[in-house]
Specification:
The C terminus is likely disordered. The chain is mainly α and 306 residues long. 59% of the residues lie in helices and 8% in strands. The radius of gyration is 21 Å and the shape is globular. α3 runs antiparallel to α6, α6 packs across α10 and α7 packs antiparallel against α8. β7 and β8 form a beta hairpin. The strands form four sheets. Strands 3-4-5 form a three-stranded antiparallel β-sheet. The protein has a two-stranded antiparallel ribbon with strand order 1-2. It has a domain of 131 residues.
Length: 306
Amino acid sequence: MREFTGVETLIDQSARRLLSQLPRNRVTDALVEFIVFGLKQGWACLFGGLLLGLVLLTHLFWPPGYWLARYDALVAAALLIQAGMLLGRLETIEEAKIILIFHVAGTVMEIFKTGVGSWLYPEPSLLRIAGVPLFSGFMYAAVGSYMVRIQRIFDITFTAYPPFWQTASLAALIYVNFFSHHFLPDFRLGLFALTGLIYWRTMMFYRVFRFRMRMPILIAFALVALFIWFGENIGTWSHTWLYPAQVDSWTLVSWEKLGSWLLLMIISVVLVTAVHKPRRHDPAAETIDSAGAQTNVAAALPPSQQ
């Protein structure tokens, strides 16, 4: 069974009260599900949403020449957010561990990518490694935070999930290509094909409130990549980081970056499943509780699929 924080429990309880006060039909049922979906998605994005909001606010209101650099202030803010979420039990220790892994992996990639000129950070700061502000790792951590929280909040289970050796091998190839394509041929088209081959049968099941729904996992990857692309446009518009083509005048981030973010999704998912094993969907375990909410007892995938 999944573990709820107090806020997630409050969302479900409020939805039950709202449902009891509305006339019961397909429209009201769908409306309640939609509201709960939006609230839980927003809650899953809490860390990333707060960090992105701070990126915008500091761009608009941070005083030029202030004694504390904007990037360093973002580092302090990200640490305070994480501490507050842990102390307030809004995030579990396991989630924090995965976020740390994302931070380290992202920072390593940032050091390399800025070194070869893929993008740059135009503002000065004290807290940086090899020219990369430490806050940049928190942007990757925000993706990790969402990925791990969404799995728990929406009680995600799977059918036909590929074995771990396949997904881990794919993630390793993707990570290597992020570096090697600067010196060797870029084989991302092959990685897209391999991703489709490995995941094309995988179906993701998730519970919003009363009903368990399903979606091909490849579509889920694409949707998350699209929202990250939107966030990246906010980050570059605020001059928090810039691609070479944006230095003189800002333009939308290239649509080609969607492919990069899609591949990043694979790495993200594999890192999460390395700690939280993907659970097999079992339709026979579905029950409807007395309040009308659907629950699921999902078994961990067998070792051959871990």
